[in-house]
């Protein structure tokens, strides 16, 4: 009986369905306007307020157990977002992310149990060299998510492209993605190596991971 109700409850979401088919076919998906201009503006405002409070830390390589700051690999500064202490715009962010997670778990049995998200600032001149989002001591990250919070007038000349290194039958194909505001990129954490090219203008984002177990 409960199964029947769950089924009646289910509403197919075309946006999520496209994300799922993209992930299956090409290991990544790009969603334009996942966040509205107003939402991006509010999140950008929060991020910049936290930066003024000096809340940001230089990002480390590896996780909390295995941590070292290596500027030659990555130059961004990060601030982990605590969902329990989320403000209005962050709550809205998590509402959307949680809805997507629920859909993935329901339709694809993804088994996402945990998530972690941080704000990131790439100051002018910084980058993140080619890497994989998994650590030797932790393989729970399944999907990486990046949401860009840059200004409306962001142009390709500002640099900071995300490059995903796709593999097509042994041949490497770089996929260049510009960090336009509102854009959300989701990709397979354990499969796709990627990098952030040097930025010419301060670059703002939220990055996170959906994790199993
Ligand atoms: O900001 C991006 O486009 C990607 C960031 C990234 O690769 C990371 O934080 O692991
Ligand atoms: Fe990454």
UniProtKB/TrEMBL annotation:
Query: Per UniProt, which keywords does this protein have?
Result: Dioxygenase, Iron, Metal-binding, Oxidoreductase, Vitamin C
Q: Which Gene3D superfamilies match?
A: q2cbj1_9rhob like domain
A Gene Ontology biological process noted in the UniProt record is: cellular response to hypoxia
Please tell me the species this chain comes from: Mangrovimonas spongiae
Which Pfam families does the UniProt entry name for this protein? 2OG-FeII_Oxy_3
GO MF: ferrous iron binding; L-ascorbic acid binding; peptidyl-proline dioxygenase activity
InterPro entries found in the cross-reference section: HIF_prolyl_hydroxylases (IPR051559), Oxoglu/Fe-dep_dioxygenase_dom (IPR005123), Pro_4_hyd_alph (IPR006620), Pro_4_hyd_alph_FE2OG_OXY (IPR044862)
**Cofactor(s) in the UniProt record:** L-ascorbate
Where does the record place the Fe2OG dioxygenase domain? 108-212
Annotated protein name in UniProt: 2OG-Fe(II) oxygenase
Keyword Endoplasmic reticulum set for record: no
């Amino acid at each position: 009986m409960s199964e029947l109700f769950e089924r009646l409850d289910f509403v197919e979401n075309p946006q999520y369905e496209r994300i799922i088919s993209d992930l299956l076919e090409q290991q990544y998906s790009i969603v334009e306007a996942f966040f509205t201009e107003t939402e991006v503006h509010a999140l950008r405002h929060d991020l910049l307020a936290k930066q003024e409070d000096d809340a940001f830390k230089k990002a480390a390589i590896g996780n909390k157990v295995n941590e070292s700051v290596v500027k030659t690999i990555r130059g961004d500064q990060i601030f982990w977002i605590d969902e329990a202490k989320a403000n209005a715009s962050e709550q809205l962010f998590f509402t959307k992310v949680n809805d997507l997670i629920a859909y993935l778990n329901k339709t694809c049995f993804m088994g996402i149990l945990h998530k972690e998200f941080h704000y990131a600032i790439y100051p002018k001149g910084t980058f993140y060299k080619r890497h994989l989002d998994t650590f030797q001591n932790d393989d729970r990250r399944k999907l990486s998510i990046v949401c860009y919070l840059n200004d409306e007038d962001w142009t390709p000349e500002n640099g900071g492209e995300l490059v995903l290194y796709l593999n097509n039958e042994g041949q490497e194909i770089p996929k260049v993605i510009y960090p336009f505001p509102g854009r959300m990129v989701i990709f397979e954490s354990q499969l796709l190596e990627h990098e952030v090219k040097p930025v010419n203008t301060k670059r703002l984002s939220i990055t996170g991971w959906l994790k199993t177990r």
